[in-house]
Amino acid sequence: MIPEAAIAMLACARIGAPHSVVFGGFSAEALRDRLVDAEAKLVITADGGFRKDKAIALKEQVDRALADRAAPSVKNVLVVQRTKASIHMEPGRDHWWHELQATASADCPAEPMDSEDMLFILYTSGSTGKPKGVVHTTGGYNLYTHMTAKWTFDLKDTDVYWCTADVGWITGHSYIVYGPLSNGATTVMYEGVPRPSNPGCFWDVIEKYGVNIFYTAPTAIRTFIKMGDQHPNARNLSSLRILGTVGEPINPEAWMWYHQVIGKERCPIVDTWWQTETGGFMITPIASATPTKPGSASRPFPGILADVVDLDGNPAADNEGGYLVVTHPWPSMIRNVYGDTDRFRKTYWEHIPPKDGKYLYFAGDGARRDEDGYFWIMGRVDDVISVSGHRLGTMEIESALVSHPAVAEAAVVGRPDDLKGEDIFAFVTLEGNSTPSDALKDELKQHVVGEIGAIARPGEIRFADALPKTRSGKIMRRLLRTLASGAEISGDTSTLEDRSVLDALRSDS
Ligand code: 7RM
Questions:
Q1: Residue with the nearest Cα to atom 5 of ligand 1?
Q2: Which residue has its alpha carbon closest to ligand 1 atom 10?
Q3: 166 lines ligand 1 (CB under 6 A)
Q4: In angstroms, what CA-CA distances link 254 with 209, 258, 369, 482?
Q5: How many Å lie between the centroid of ligand 1 and the Cα of residue 213?
Q6: pLDDT above 60 (res 259)
């Protein structure tokens, strides 16, 4: 999260070289897989990076990823000096950024590109462990991130705009780099993360730079709530004009806190629903123009046609749950899964069968649309559990659990079962005023039976203080499935926000 990250992305775009940004927290193996899949020629990294109170050995990870010529397409490594840690520089392969820059010409004409030429690949995790390389193109992506940033945030070129996402995430691409910069706005990029040693750091940044537009994730908002109102209250936040949120459905309590404590009840909140695959906002309010409802992303952006349908592609009635689809193409839509067109078709275009030759883009989320045409996103639907041949959506069981007053959050996964094929395993966090007990477990199982039916009765419920999540607030179900099956966690856990959560989940409380 240093300016050179954005500079490198834009430099690639200028010379017509597709880029693929890899989150700094990924393991050497995860980096290697991506380098190999993308057939990358050049790696740009730093001698190290700072995250929370630790320095991360970024270059060491790159060296490990490239060891034994495991990613043979890579010819050179460019290293930004950031921490001044002592690192190995491989002669002939590795070069210092500042040394090459000193001799480079200031004149670098932009390479003319076709609108459909690849601008970047961004890897996103799929339900099978192999990451998908989402391909975006030059014309459509730039047009759409420009328009959505401008309209949704009411962005002016005099604005100081701050999105707290990591550049390794699509939000960082579209709404730290491409969207705000193509509008001439000033974009803030912040390397820090709030932690107990600096709980007011975000509010300091807003005060110091006079931030007008602030865009963050519900998981961050919930962290701020826990840290306490005294931190924002001690800063001058009067420069703020518009607030935004992204990454997961925002719970009404977090929405109200954001509105009152940060926005002082005068800043509209834009709850933006979109994906790595969509490139830009799909369902979102337009700041100050769209009346908002806490917890709803409101309506599709102008030009976007979205719907809620059943598995046959038939539209759902008002307030009836279903699958969220986009029915017409849009400028920044995913063009392919890099090197795997078959997977592209299967994942996004065949889940809901095409009707009369017309394909629907299936987003993988469940949703309902209310009588005002407002969309309420209900989360991912790809997790289906098959109990004795009955297919049950985990989302439905989770909704049933959360509708019980004692439950704060729930994550449901399947556990292999000799008899039934799969059994339902539920991880549950409780509201502050509820205490875990066996009686409560029975009550919750009974509650699910009452809501859905006997087939959905969880075989096991485990209480937890927290669920394993990524930094953008997404529950890591793969880890929960492994835990539920009693196996040891293997594979990549580097996107996990807080590792101690896993240890706590291993033992029953
Ligand atoms: C931008 C981003 C995409 C998934 C998406 C949803 C969830 C994102 C919202 C949301 C409810 C929102 N890209 N999601 N935004 N759910 N309300 N405003 O997050 O590719 O990393 O994730 O995130 O499930 O499908 S992503």
A1: 275
A2: 248
A3: no
A4: 25, 6, 22, 30
A5: 20
A6: yes
Entry field: residues in the chain: 509
Closest CA to 57 of 71, 74, 66, 45: 45
Residue 316 DSSP class: P
What percent of the chain clears pLDDT 90, i.e. is strictly above it?
A: 68
d(CA 133, CA 280): 17
Contact 248, 474 (CB under 8 A): yes
What is the rounded distance in angstroms from the CA atom of residue 499 to the CA atom of residue 112? 45
Query: What is the atom index within ligand 1 of the atom nearest the CA of 124?
Result: 20
Residue 436 Cα, ligand 1 centroid: separation in angstroms? 31
Does 271 sit in the ligand 1 pocket, CB within 6 Å?
Answer: yes
Which of ligand 1's atoms lies nearest the C-alpha of 276? 20
The DSSP H or E segment spanning 218 is helix 218-227
Cα dihedral 332→337→343→344 (10° resolution): 20
Among protein residues, the one whose CA lies closest to atom 18 of ligand 1? 273
By the 10 Å C-beta count (0-12 exposed, 13-18 middle, 19+ buried), 103 is classed as exposed
Report whether residue 334 contacts ligand 1, using a CB cutoff of 6 Å.
no
Residue ranges and CATH numbers for the domains of the chain are: 3-112 (no CATH), 153-264 (3.40.50.980), 388-508 (3.30.300.30)
In angstroms, the first-to-last Cα distance of the chain is 38
Instruction: State which ligand 1 atom lies nearest to the alpha carbon of 283.
Output: 18
What element of type H or E holds 270?
Answer: strand 269-271
Nearest CA owner, ligand 1 atom 26? 275
Q: How far apart are CA 154 and CA 183, in angstroms?
A: 11
Degrees (nearest 5) of the Cα angle 257, 398, 325?
A: 85
Q: How far apart are CA 485 and CA 461, in angstroms?
A: 13
The three-class DSSP label of residue 489 is coil
Q: Which residue type does 251 have?
A: N
Measure the CA–CA gap between 291 and 487, rounded to whole angstroms: 48
Other CB atoms within 10 A of residue 131 CB: 19
Asked whether the predicted pLDDT for residue 91 surpasses 50, the reply is yes
492 has pLDDT over 80:
no
Check residue 218 and give its pLDDT.
87
Task: Give tens-digit pLDDT for 197-222.
Answer: 889 999 999 999 999 999 999 888 98
Question: Which three-class secondary structure state does DSSP give residue 264?
Answer: coil
The token pair at 253 is: 């309590």
Q: What is the mean pLDDT of residues 87-111?
A: 97
Q: Which residues, listed in sequence order, are joined to residue 216 by a DSSP beta bridge?
A: 245
Q: What's the average model confidence in pLDDT over 437-466? A: 92
Q: Which of 163, 275, 495 to mutate to test the pocket of ligand 1 (most atoms within 8 A of CB)?
A: 275
d(CA 27, CA 491): 10
The β-bridge relationship of strands 94-96 and 76-80 is parallel
Q: Decide: helix, strand or coil at residue 424.
A: strand
